[in-house]
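Forwarding these from the shared drive since the link keeps breaking.
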Amino acid sequence: MRLVEGVVAVDDVDAFVAALADVAGDTGATVQAFDARYVVSRRHLERAVELADRAIERGENVARDRAVEILLYAAGRRQITDALELGVDEGPNRAVILVDGGDETEAAEAVRSRILDRSEPTLGDYDPDRVREFFGITDAELDAVDGDVEALVLERVALLVVEK
């Protein structure tokens, strides 16, 4: 798994998704873009990939597309429309773009050259309030884990397996 970080200016979300699909088609990689404000760590996306792949292997996936299944796990949601909040939106976006499988080197380079407007670190630059609201993290939960937001997000990602 490779993560490509940077800024993307999205004029049309459908065209942006089509451009990601083109990179995926050209390289055999799964490519999914995330709004960096929601991605707490590399481990957050690694765990989503692991659990999505396990669901697909077992025939328990919700989405037909692997990239969408990864998005569902990263969001800790079963509903695609709810999970899409973790994706990029129209306008400028600080993004983390996941590339996994296929020719990851070529796919990552294609994302850098064809998708990103500017390469810059975005991973770990999440919005704590936005993350807490999206994942429903309470003050009591934060106190129980000494303020470790990542631990609680990883728990939400893992709980999706149980909620089926």
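-- next protein --
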Amino acid sequence: MSQFLIKIISQPKLYSCISNPWPWHSLRLSSTLSSSSSSSSRGNSFIVSYLVGTCGFSPERAVYISKRFSFETSDKPDAVISFIKNIGLSQTTTLRVIQSLPQLLVANPKTLQPKIDFFKSKGFSSSDICRIIEGCPSILTRSLQNEIAPSFDCFDAMFQSRHKLIKAATGYSAMLYDFARFTEPNIKLLRDEGVAESHIVRLIQYYPNQLKNSPKKFKEALQEVKEMKFDPLTFQFIVAIHVKTKIGKSTWERKEGIYRKWGWTDADIITAFRRCPWCFASSDNKIEAVMDFLVNRLGYASSSVVKYPLILSMSLKRRIIPRGSIFLVLQSKGLVRKLGLASVFRINEKTFLSAL
């Protein structure tokens, strides 16, 4: 019985990269229980010393990590560090990768190399691969056969442009795993609504993390957007889903309250969101500041923002205040008549300056 318990205790747990900071996927950990408490103490002391001295961990963090895996010599962790550096990462970046995913120290470089070879075979440059590892170290812990390769192949068929896919994957390498669990069901939901394939590809390019939402959450956002009468054939449909899933229900309700405070009706809120979903992505303080400047300083009715909600996503300091202040001065001197928000703020800087 005692041997059975030891065997059970020594088995490493498997964690998801999304839900737990210790994703062990496909890594073989050498965890050893010593019959001697003093021997175990010396082993932990060596690991802590290595983590602090070589990897730059704080003593507290090193002690915490040392309880989760072990190594008796520095051979294996040294080999892993050398492997990561040989990919092309600097010493500083290599240690940052190790610090974000310390279980890599007990990985076998021979199991990591095929993933690097795969990326190279698909056209990723050395700098691309470095960006992938730096941006998402856990990609090294994912199964090549079951996750990375199938995900890449599916996206490759969709993009029909290896260059665009490499750019997207380099910017958000987490898109290359959990495809069947999250990405594939969410893509199916969009296809079932008649969303154009080109718009789905743009979603992956610009908002790839949206496909990591649970299918349940993604479907709820999609249904809400449909109820607001967004057209699935337009990219605005995609943007609305993105904003909806990004801010969540409580944030949405809080922003509704802010707009109501400025006199907007429920119909106004829906109208503004349909015209520019980004008006709900701005921070509470930004919304308040823009509305205050437009209504109380420039004298616009709050309903004018409903007609041109894009202004809420513009820079307050770089565009709204400077441009609004100039028009305020010109108006006070009778040099210009009062113009609509779009006429004042939509035109580019060159056109604006030439019109003065």
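The chain is about 65% helix and 0% strand. Residues 235-261 form the longest helix (27 residues).

- D.
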